[in-house]
Automatic annotation (TrEMBL):
It holds the Pfam family DHODB_Fe-S_bind. NCBIfam families: PRK00054.1-4. The keyword Metal-binding applies. Binds 1 [2Fe-2S] cluster per subunit. Binds 1 FAD per subunit. The keyword Endoplasmic reticulum does not apply. InterPro entries: Cyt_c3_hydrogenase_gsu (IPR012165), Dihydroorotate_DH_ele_sf (IPR037117), Dihydroorotate_DH_Fe-S-bd (IPR019480), Dihydroorotate_DHASE_ETsu (IPR023455), FAD-bd_FR_type (IPR017927), FNR_nucleotide-bd (IPR039261), PyrK_electron_transfer (IPR050353), Riboflavin_synthase-like_b-brl (IPR017938). This is Dihydroorotate dehydrogenase B (NAD(+)), electron transfer subunit.
Length: 255
């Protein structure tokens, strides 16, 4: 069940170029959030933005009942969001979408593959997998050194490989240049569509899940603004990213 509530900003900092980390206190409801789900945030004042902004959940702190979100300032909406200060409140819908079904699969070693702002939701996923006794290895990709974040956090979960497009930090190239050198049972990936397509193609013989980044309308599955075609030729159907996703089995949808 999706809830609407006012969440208080209890921490905020810049962790990389144009990249903001916020912690929001929201009460016991945060304990129900599953890895891969997101929040839909109303930003701006007096209707300056008609649509809410979907933001991935990077971490959950059950002791103080807070969530951590990470977003990149790339437009007027996220520009307004980053202007909020500690102590202010945000109008939030949560938990939105369907997460990674880690309770339904048998995995011994997981590979996390993230790109840019698709990296954050994989951190909470990795924490929960490790809590369940799963070995975790991560490949996280960024444009350049100044964009890198959460390397230490992922390294605490297991081996972590950082890749930058320009080679200014870590491996030079793309995440797909690294992943085929690694052994794992399942992969879990989140990032830009082009990256997800490349990862899915590279790992077509492996079991896995992808999480799609997408601008949304309502965020609750009512408006059909964020649909993606399925790979089921017989049904020729569509899935709603905000409700059926953003997490899908690899090759379940056409990206």
């Amino acid at each position: 069940m999706i809830n609407q509530l006012m969440m208080t900003i209890i921490d905020k900092k810049t962790i990389a170029k144009d990249t903001i980390e916020m912690r929001l206190a929201g009460g016991a409801i945060v304990r129900t959030i599953e890895p891969g789900q997101f929040v839909h945030i109303n930003v701006g004042n007096q209707g300056s933005h008609m649509l809410r902004r979907p933001i991935s959940i990077a971490d959950i702190n059950e002791s103080d009942e807070s969530i951590t979100i990470i977003f990149k300032v790339i437009g007027s909406g996220t520009e307004d969001l980053q202007s909020y200060q500690i102590g202010q409140e945000l109008d939030v819908l949560l938990p939105c979408g369907s997460g990674y079904p880690i309770k339904e699969i048998n995995v011994k070693k997981a590979l996390l593959v993230g790109g840019g702002i698709g990296v954050p939701p994989l951190y909470y996923l990795g924490k929960k997998l490790k809590e369940n006794g799963v070995e975790v290895e991560s490949v996280i990709g960024f444009q350049t050194k100044s964009s890198v974040f959460y390397e230490q956090q992922f390294a605490e979960l297991g081996a972590c490989h950082v890749v930058t497009d320009d080679g200014s930090y870590g491996w030079k190239g793309y995440v797909t240049d690294v992943i085929d050198q690694l052994d794992f049972d399942y992969y879990f990936s989140c990032g830009p569509t082009g990256m997800l397509r490349a990862v899915s193609n590279k790992l077509e013989n492996h079991k896995g899940f992808i999480s799609i980044e997408q601008r949304m309308g309502c965020g609750i599955g009512a408006c059909y603004a964020c649909v993606v075609p399925t790979n089921d030729d017989e049904k020729n159907g569509f899935k709603k990213i905000c409700k059926d996703g953003p997490v899908f089995r690899a090759n379940e949808v056409v990206i």
